Amino acid sequence: MKFSIITVNYNNAAGLEKTFKSVFSQTYADFDFVVIDGGSTDTSTNIIEQHKDKISYWISEKDTGVYNAMNKGIRAAKGDFVIFMNSGDVFFDADVLQNAYPLITPEYAIYYGNNIKKSPSSERLKTYPAKLNFSFFYSSSLNHQSTFIKKSLFDDIFYYNENYKIASDWEFFAYAICLQNVPYKYLNQTISIYDFTGISSTQSELLAKEKLDSIKKYFPAFEDDYVDISLLTSKRVQQIFHIQKYPVAWRILKNFISVILLFLPKLKK
Questions:
Q1: What are φ and ψ of residue 122, in 5° steps?
Q2: pLDDT for 9-29, tens place per residue?
Q3: Dihedrals φ, ψ of 98, to 5°?
Q4: At a CB cut-off of 8 Å and minimum separation 6, what does 42 contact?
Q5: Contact criterion met (CB below 8 Å) for 47 and 19
Q6: Alpha helices, DSSP H, located in the chain
Q7: Confidence band for 227, pLDDT divided at 50, 70 and 90
Q8: Running DSSP on this structure, what letter comes out for residue 269?
Q9: Contact 129, 139 (CB under 8 A)
Q10: What is the DSSP string of 28-39?
Q11: Treating both helix axes as pointing N-terminal to C-terminal, what angle do 247-268 and 235-243 enclose, rounded to 10 degrees?
Q12: 191 in helix, strand or coil?
């Protein structure tokens, strides 16, 4: 079996229903479907029970976080390649697996495509470069909703870091591609519609903190560069760059900074 679809869920019955509908509508149906529920107290388990004849493996029990649940899913999966479609996420259309099937071979360990990032107020297409390097991972990452990963790669490298809340998939991809030179390939097609309201999308400070911790561990030579780039791309600095477009506001800000710099030595005394 080539594919395993892994769905992780916790108290998101509406999102789970949406994801199930997308998975079951795939025109290519020869896949392993694994559902890991974190002991939900809503109606999620009822929904799973209703569809259990279409699910290869499922469990509902308390876990220590999303990456603990994802690792459980990997271990239960039987396919050669896994893709995570967590509750609320859906395939772009019914033919995603059918179109991907002939393109995905054992030659590469990671196949990644595009996704649509969707929130209640916006929707945009996210595309990716065909060549990945560490400069890409400084400010971005691959999305697991749009990436097929050879299951054996987790045994060869490591499973997701369960100490992180957000950055474990970033760490996995950066380490595999930039340090281990794992072969990868870009699929120039849209794979998923990604629910852009999760924790990784709303807690940028925690994400930056975990990424810096990972860089210290695996890429220490780039630690200072990462800190510098983080400062340059911070919200405050971007606001300053935006103010530059308005001459009067920019002149006021420069004068204010000049006054601060003038009195700063005196304040230190």
A1: -155, 165
A2: 999 999 999 999 999 999 999
A3: -60, -40
A4: 11, 12, 13
A5: no
A6: 13-24, 44-50, 66-76, 96-100, 134-139, 151-156, 168-174, 199-202, 204-218, 223-232, 235-243, 247-268
A7: low
A8: -
A9: no
A10: ---EEEEEEE--
A11: 130
A12: strand
Nearest residue to 89 via CA among 175, 204, 200: 200
Q: What tokens does 143 get?
A: 């999305």
Tokens coding 252: 């006021």
**pLDDT of 1 higher than 90:** no
Whether the Cβ atoms of residue 82 and residue 151 lie closer than 8 Å to each other: yes
Q: What type of residue is 129? A: P
- On the CB side of 96, CA atoms within 13 Å amount to 28
pLDDT digits (tens, 9 = 90+) for 83-126: 999 999 999 999 999 999 999 999 999 999 999 988 777 789 99
CA distance 85 to 151: 15
- Please tell me which residue, 34 or 140, carries the higher pLDDT value: 34
Tokens of 56: 């290869």
Instruction: Check whether 174 has a pLDDT greater than 50.
Output: yes
Burial (CB < 10 A; 0-12, 13-18, 19+), residue 262, is exposed
pLDDT of residue 267: 47
Q: What is the pLDDT of residue 208?
A: 86
